[in-house]
Design brief:
VOC_core, alpha/beta, four-stranded mixed sheet, dioxygenase, 2,3-Dihydroxybiphenyl 1,2-Dioxygenase, domain 1, about 15% helix, Glyoxalase/bleomycin resistance protein/dioxygenase superfamily protein, globular
C-alpha cells in the first residue's frame, strides 16, 4: 500500500475573484464556505469532502468539469438552480433539452459555470 493510501486528501481550483466565488458557492449554491489563510476559501460538501478555492490573478477557467454534484432528481436541481440565477451551458453537438439537461448519452447531466468560468455539473446519480 502507498504511503499516502490512508491519508486524507482534498482538491482545489483557482478563481479570479475570491469574493464572487464565496458568494456564488455559499449563497447561490448553498454550500458551507469558510475563510482560510491567504485569501483562500474552503468548500464543505456532503460526506465530509472539502475543496480549497484560491485566488489566482492570471486564472484561466478549466476547460473540463471540475466539480460534479450528484443529484437524485436532475429536473428539480436544474429548476432550483435556475431559480437562483444559475444559467446552464449548452454545447454545440450535444443533445441537450431547452433547460440544458442532456439525457440518454450516459448519465443525465447539465453544466453551468461559476463566476470564474470553471465548469460544474449536476449529474443524476444512478
Amino acid at each position: 500500500m502507498s504511503a499516502l493510501g490512508s491519508t486524507k486528501a482534498i482538491s482545489g481550483f483557482s478563481v479570479d475573484d475570491i469574493d464572487a466565488a464565496k458568494k456564488f458557492y455559499g449563497e447561490t449554491l448553498g454550500l458551507k464556505v469558510t475563510d482560510e489563510e491567504m485569501g483562500i476559501i474552503r468548500l464543505h460538501l456532503a460526506g465530509g469532502t472539502e475543496i480549497l478555492v484560491y485566488p489566482k490573478p492570471n486564472h484561466e477557467p478549466a476547460s473540463y468539469t471540475i466539480l460534479n454534484f450528484l443529484v437524485d432528481d436532475i429536473d428539480s436541481a436544474v429548476d432550483e438552480l435556475t431559480g437562483r440565477g444559475v444559467e446552464f451551458v449548452k454545447y454545440d453537438g450535444f443533445p441537450q433539452e431547452e433547460n440544458g439537461i442532456m439525457r440518454g448519452n450516459g448519465p443525465d447531466i447539465a453544466w453551468f459555470t461559476d463566476p470564474a468560468g470553471n465548469v460544474i455539473s449536476v449529474l443524476k446519480e444512478s
